[in-house]
């Protein structure tokens, strides 16, 4: 693979949370209804210079990494980022229904509430996870036209910045004197703090496995935007940035770019044809507020441990929890360390995501400039799910080298997406021993993809909530799936093999995750934002 | 391959030696040359005979190798056998490390240095056997591997030696069934193809070398082995005046040199594929073989105690063939050599393998079954139609197995025909295989969803989207109302073979089914042109879908792809191929762009790698799932019931035909529905939530370990035989 074969990306034209991701400890996501289109266009035009681009966010990330390395500690830098995204109704208001249709007239147009049944959400209106009961973005809450994502290193920075924005937006009013954009919901997400930083509420390290995108920056076309550290003599160097960090063609995330080819991951397909040119470099954003029932999760793990291991002490529930998730709480992959949590597997990002399921791992060879890899066991071959169950969360949503119903593992890459989520709500000191405190907590799930149907919805509908996909008899995703019986579908189950090779199939009757709101949005390029703030052309 | 000596009095066994002599020089010249050779000086022992020079055939070799010797039986651990064992260890190590001897063999490696590492030997605590046949030796290899005793070795370059206890007979019989031998012998038509001979050490067999393929959870491995008899008295190849350990040393030297220059010869014999061969002569002799033939009954001409620099300074070996002297060559003078590390006196490791397990062999077969019609259909009216149907599918299985035999050349196929017998083993597994019904190839074209749906079902003139694109064994036909909205979608996954069968044997049933499921207006002449059934008749193309018509969608393809996928495939380095796309690219058993073909092949090949005997579950067919209707809503936002999908043929367990239409009494039609808020405008939207499937059956894990093959078509045995051959055909998907 040479640099010339990968497309040049205009990082000044792409919103920064799509790539490389804000990666901040604090986020506030504000949901607005557009009250008046003309005034909204004016307000958004005012905000446009603030929109954080990929170029800026990446430059900051690199500078921060350099300083951290030099100082062997904190960089001393801080920054506050902002991005904007629009729902179908938002695009239609700012431009026209025809233009919004041209962006996407499928799932994006239908919207998250109507698509909710496909995702495994409850069908019964009485349940809190039904869109009729959502806190925002549901059937009974105001339309969300625009989402503003603000991320910062300190909560106070975000507050200060939002205060500034509020003041600026106050200047943009409807002819009747109302604000152009009405704030209808605000999500506040924070990392959990202390040892749980980077972990989600169940206690597991989150976001370890993220694909990278191929391409070169317009500003430095002789370099890949994502560093390649595998010895170029090896075939893996063409497929991964770091070991295990799979490279996707940018069209998997960004519209108008060469797309991932299921048949040959090294050769892209032509960019997906666009009906509106300014959609190029935009990306669809899925936002879901997912409430997590931490006590219920660990109660079930404890119950499983008693059935599988005959005991339910902390070591036993950690062992079972690692199989249900596919990683230990530290994030160490269970196929590399089946019997004990070893945080050293995630201390080095060249190791944390380097594992396979079906075949045994191989030791990667890195370029000469890289320091040696820590001498840690490679992943074990697990073709039958004896170490990581087929219903284990990370095996469900990213089967890696497993046999899959789509043909081959290369085809699974066409369904991957990038995640930018952050927890909300107070953390439990030790989630394993949490008792219900009546407080809301969970994950603000954010993903970016070029196709909501092909990526987010496919994962949820086919793999997370498919009993037989990608592996026949797997059961649904043991964490994220809908487990309780619904509409004739029985309860889900997971098969766990104990340390002596005996298999245990355990029925899961409890759902741990309940949708509380969300929406489907489009995050335009800077060019696209400029287009939307201009007067629409009929 | 075999280290075999046929004494003169055993007339029936003297096959190779006279032939070889006849082709050489007169006996007097040979005797003179032999006399010269007996002097012990380096160089040629016989007059040159270039016709027997070794030729490189392209197979593996091992310029740098290790060996580990296992002495069979606890008796080797103590007196009186411990001392000869130690002498043997020291001598074979020294011989294999000697630059002079290695200099002869190095000519086959461009005269680059070759190295040999002797790994510590061990005594294997196994029960004494009167006879160790090849099956026993193979089984020992497998048990050693599975016990973990070979775990630390680089098996690609290590030879495992077995030395038999005194009086035990070594036989080259076994290690496969009779069918293998017959075929191998029948295929042995061309000079240069190595021979498989069933002999034993009471009849001049001293030892042999070969390879065993073992499947393991981490993939397949090949273990190279040699076996040597305790040559003494009338057993093996005793040399006059030599102690038994010296005889064994010469045998091991012979086998090690042959394994170095031709390690995969056993695969060549098993398959008849000459590409497995490293170095051999045009008469099929390996580096150590022809010299024995040359020596005839005067074995001392090539079995010699040669002087080497290192301890123990004299080693008993057999001279190897040397192209540079066109005959067996004795080592020349050499000096200043490093001392080989003598192993004598080292601690003896005694390894126990636990209870003896039976040798792994292909399972025997019990009675066959009559294959049922797909979905256990009860359409047939004629009594013998069921048997005829089964017989037709049996031919498909036979053809699929024949395809595997293009590779296996008589080795047991891992694919079986259920009508001819079901394996007699309680070890039985089922492998359900599922894939999405909507064409994956269309999904991967990078088209908007609507365009994918349109292309799948377009009917325009002679262009049928179904014929062209619906290639995942699921096809559908959309009926629209006058307003263009969908009224019903008919789904079918019935192979065309069944309908051709009906046309031939049950024409009334054929017509009745078309009239029931497609239109009462169907007439028999619409379906049968002349005497032939026309699967592309109007009622099964532009006016309906009775059964599969896409050229790749048929039962024969299903049967053959599964069969083809039982052939193990290997990479250039000998490791097994395991990845779905890699396998289908290698074996060409279908279209890599589909979901179905590579996935079926992937899972079947995984069973084959586990050593199972495999087939398809009765009733052999392709079956659809019910569509997942969650998210389908009527205009009043109400979810629809399962009544919208009717199983029209087959059963809930084996759905062959399904109709998606409004149930009786509904005020809505299909075109009124939405899926997750998106209007239902195309049949493909429903196909997207239907899975297809079949079920494989597998018997006897680990009972077969056939070799793996390079990519592409099977080896052209006829090329080797220099005769006409029947070309190998890729899967023919018959309509």
- How many individual domains of chain B? 2
Q: Outline of chain B, from the CA principal axes?
A: elongated
C-alpha termini separation of chain A: 45 Å
Number of helices, where a helix is a run of at least 4 consecutive DSSP H or I residues of chain A: 14
Cα(first) to Cα(last) distance of chain B is: 48 Å
- Helix/strand/pairing class of chain B, anyone? alpha+beta
Helix content of chain B: 25-40%
How many beta-strand segments of chain A?
16
Low-confidence stretches of chain A: none
User: Whole-number radius of gyration of chain A?
Assistant: 23 Å
Count of extended strands of chain B: 31
Share of residues in strands of chain B: 15-25%
Q: What does this entry show, briefly?
A:
The complex is a heterodimer of chains A (538) and B (735). Chain A has 538 residues and is of the alpha+beta class.
Structure, described:
- The complex is a heterodimer of chains A (538) and B (735).
- Chain A has 14 helices and 16 strands.
- Chain A is α+β, with helices and mostly antiparallel strands and 538 residues long.
- In chain A, strands 10, 11, 12, 13 and 16 form a five-stranded antiparallel sheet that branches. In chain A, strands 3-4-2-5 form a four-stranded antiparallel sheet. In chain A, strands 1-7-8 form a three-stranded mixed sheet, with no helix packed on it.
- Chain B has two domains: 2-350, no CATH class; 364-509 and 547-735, no CATH class.
- Chain B is built from 21 helices and 31 strands.
- In chain B, helix 17 (555-564) packs parallel to helix 19 (596-609).
- Chain A binds chain B through residues 106-107, 109-111, 114-118, 123, 259, 261-263, 269-270, 272-273, 358-360, 381, 383, 401, 403-411, 414, 453-454, 457, 461-462, 468-469, 472-473, 487-488, and chain B through 217-219, 432-436, 440, 443-446, 448-449, 578-581, 584, 592-599, 602-603, 606, 628, 630-631, 639, 642, 674-678, 691.
């Amino acid at each position: 693979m040479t640099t010339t074969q990968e497309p040049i990306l205009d990082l000044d034209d792409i919103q920064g949370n799509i790539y490389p991701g804000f990666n901040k400890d604090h986020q506030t996501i504000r949901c607005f209804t557009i009250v008046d289109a003309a005034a909204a266009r004016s307000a958004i035009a005012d905000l446009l210079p603030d929109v954080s681009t990929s170029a800026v966010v990446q430059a900051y990330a690199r500078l921060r990494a350099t300083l951290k390395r030099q100082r062997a500690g904190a960089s001393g830098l801080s920054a506050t980022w902002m991005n904007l995204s629009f729902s179908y109704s938002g695009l239609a208001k700012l431009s026209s229904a025809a233009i919004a249709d041209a962006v996407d007239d499928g799932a994006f147009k239908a919207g998250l509430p109507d698509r909710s049944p496909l995702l495994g959400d409850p069908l019964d209106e009485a349940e809190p996870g039904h869109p009729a009961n959502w806190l925002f973005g549901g059937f009974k809450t105001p339309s969300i036209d625009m989402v503003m994502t603000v991320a910062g290193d300190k909560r106070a920075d975000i507050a200060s910045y939002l205060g500034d924005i509020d003041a600026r937006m106050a200047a943009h009013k409807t002819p009747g004197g109302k604000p152009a954009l009405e704030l209808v919901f605000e999500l506040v997400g924070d990392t959990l703090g202390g040892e749980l930083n980077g972990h989600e509420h169940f206690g597991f390290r989150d976001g370890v496995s993220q694909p990278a995108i191929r391409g070169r920056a317009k500003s430095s076309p002789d370099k890949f935007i994502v560093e390649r550290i595998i010895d170029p003599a090896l075939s893996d160097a063409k497929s991964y940035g770091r070991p295990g960090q799979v490279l996707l063609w940018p069209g998997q995330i960004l519209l108008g770019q060469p797309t991932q080819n299921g048949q040959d991951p090294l050769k892209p397909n032509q960019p997906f044809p666009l009906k509106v040119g300014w959609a190029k470099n935009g990306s669809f954003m899925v936002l879901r507020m997912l409430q997590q029932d931490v006590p219920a999760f660990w109660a079930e793990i404890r119950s499983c441990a008693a059935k599988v291991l005959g005991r339910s002490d902390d070591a036993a529930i950690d062992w079972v929890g690692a199989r249900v998730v596919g990683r230990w709480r530290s994030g160490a992959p269970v196929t590399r360390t089946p019997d004990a949590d070893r945080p050293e597997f995630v201390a080095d990002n060249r190791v944390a995501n380097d594992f396979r399921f079906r075949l045994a791992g191989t030791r990667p060879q890195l370029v000469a400039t890289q320091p040696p890899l820590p001498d840690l066991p490679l992943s074990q071959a697990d073709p039958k799910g004896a170490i990581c169950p087929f219903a284990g969360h990370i095996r469900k949503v990213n089967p890696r080298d497993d046999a899959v119903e789509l043909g081959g593992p290369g085809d699974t890459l066409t369904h991957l997406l990038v995640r930018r989520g952050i927890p909300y709500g107070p953390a439990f000191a030790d989630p394993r021993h949490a008792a219900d405190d009546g407080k809301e907590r969970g994950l603000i799930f954010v993903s970016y993809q070029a196709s909501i149907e092909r990526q987010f919805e496919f994962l949820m509908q086919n793999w997370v909530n498919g009993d037989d996909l990608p592996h026949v008899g797997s059961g649904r995703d043991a964490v994220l799936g809908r487990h309780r019986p619904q509409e004739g579908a029985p309860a889900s189950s997971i098969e766990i093999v104990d340390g002596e090779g005996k298999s245990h199939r355990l029925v899961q009757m409890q759902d741990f995750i309940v949708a509380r709101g969300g929406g489907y949005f489009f995050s335009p390029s800077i060019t696209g934002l400029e287009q939307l703030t201009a007067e629409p052309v009929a | 391959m075999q280290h075999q000596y046929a004494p003169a009095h055993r007339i029936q066994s003297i096959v190779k030696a006279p032939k070889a002599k006849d082709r050489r020089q007169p006996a007097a010249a040979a005797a003179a040359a032999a006399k010269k050779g007996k002097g012990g000086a380096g160089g040629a022992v016989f007059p040159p005979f270039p016709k027997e020079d070794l030729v490189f055939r392209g197979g593996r070799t091992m310029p740098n190798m290790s060996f580990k010797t296992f002495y069979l039986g606890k008796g080797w651990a103590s007196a009186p056998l411990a001392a000869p064992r130690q002498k043997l260890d020291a001598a074979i190590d020294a011989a294999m490390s000697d630059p002079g001897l290695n200099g002869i063999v190095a000519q086959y490696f461009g005269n680059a240095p070759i190295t040999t590492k002797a790994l510590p030997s061990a005594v294997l605590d196994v029960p004494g056997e009167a006879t160790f046949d090849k099956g026993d030796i193979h089984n020992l290899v497998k048990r050693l591997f599975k016990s973990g005793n070979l775990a630390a070795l680089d098996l690609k370059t290590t030879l495992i030696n077995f030395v038999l206890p005194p009086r035990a007979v070594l036989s080259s019989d076994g290690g496969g069934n009779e069918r293998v031998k017959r075929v191998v012998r029948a295929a042995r038509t061309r000079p240069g193809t190595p021979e498989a001979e069933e002999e034993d050490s009471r009849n001049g067999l001293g030892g042999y070398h070969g390879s065993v393929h073992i499947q393991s959870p981490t993939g397949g491995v090949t273990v190279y082995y040699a076996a040597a008899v305790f040559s003494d008295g009338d057993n093996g190849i005793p040399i006059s005046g030599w102690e038994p350990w010296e005889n064994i040393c010469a045998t091991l030297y012979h086998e090690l040199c042959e394994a170095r220059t031709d390690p995969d010869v056993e695969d060549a014999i098993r398959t008849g594929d000459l590409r497995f061969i490293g170095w051999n002569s045009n008469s099929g002799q390996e580096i150590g073989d022809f010299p024995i033939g040359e020596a005839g009954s005067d074995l001392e001409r090539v079995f010699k105690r040669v002087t080497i620099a290192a301890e123990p300074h004299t080693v008993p070996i057999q001279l190897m063939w040397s192209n540079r002297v066109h005959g067996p060559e004795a080592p020349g003078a050499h000096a200043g050599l490093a001392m080989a590390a003598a192993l004598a006196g080292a601690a003896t490791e005694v390894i126990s393998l636990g209870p003896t397990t039976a040798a792994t062999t292909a399972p025997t077969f019990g009675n066959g079954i009559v294959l049922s019609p797909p979905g256990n259909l009860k359409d047939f009216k004629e009594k013998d139609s069921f048997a005829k149907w089964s017989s037709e599918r049996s031919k498909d299985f036979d053809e699929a197995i024949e395809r595997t035999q293009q590779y296996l050349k008589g080795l047991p196929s891992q694919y079986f025909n259920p009508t001819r017998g079901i394996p007699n083993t309680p070890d039985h597994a089922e492998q359900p295989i599922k894939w999405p019904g909507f064409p994956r190839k269309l999904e991967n074209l990078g088209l908007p969803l609507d365009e994918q749906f349109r292309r799948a079902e377009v009917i325009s003139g002679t262009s049928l989207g179904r014929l062209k694109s619906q290639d995942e064994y699921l096809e559908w036909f959309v009926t629209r109302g006058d307003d263009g909205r969908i009224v019903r979608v008919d789904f079918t996954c019935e192979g065309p073979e069944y309908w051709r069968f009906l046309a031939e044997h049950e024409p009334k049933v054929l017509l009745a089914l078309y009239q029931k499921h497609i239109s009462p207006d169907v007439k028999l002449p619409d379906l049968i042109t002349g005497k032939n059934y026309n699967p592309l008749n109007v009622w099964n193309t532009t006016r309906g879908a009775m059964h599969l018509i896409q050229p790749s969608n048929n039962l024969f393809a299903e049967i053959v792809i599964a069969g083809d996928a039982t052939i193990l495939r290997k990479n250039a380095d000998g490791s097994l191929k395991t990845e779905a796309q890699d396998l289908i690219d290698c074996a060409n058993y279908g279209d890599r762009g589909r979901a179905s073909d590579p996935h079926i092949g992937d899972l079947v090949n995984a069973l084959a790698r586990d050593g199972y005997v495999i087939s398809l579950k009765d009733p052999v067919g392709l079956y659809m799932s019910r569509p997942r209707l969650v998210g389908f809503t009527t205009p009043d936002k109400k979810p629809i019931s399962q009544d919208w999908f009717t199983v029209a043929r087959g059963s809930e367990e084996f759905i062959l035909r399904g109709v998606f239409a409004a149930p009786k009494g509904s005020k809505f039609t299909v075109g009124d529905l939405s899926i997750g808020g998106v209007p239902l405008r195309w049949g493909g939207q429903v196909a997207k939530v239907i899975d297809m499937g079949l079920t494989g059956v597998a018997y006897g894990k680990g009972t077969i370990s056939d070799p793996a093959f390079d990519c592409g078509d099977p080896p052209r045995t006829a090329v080797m035989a220099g005769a006409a051959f029947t070309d190998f055909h890729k899967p023919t998907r018959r309509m």
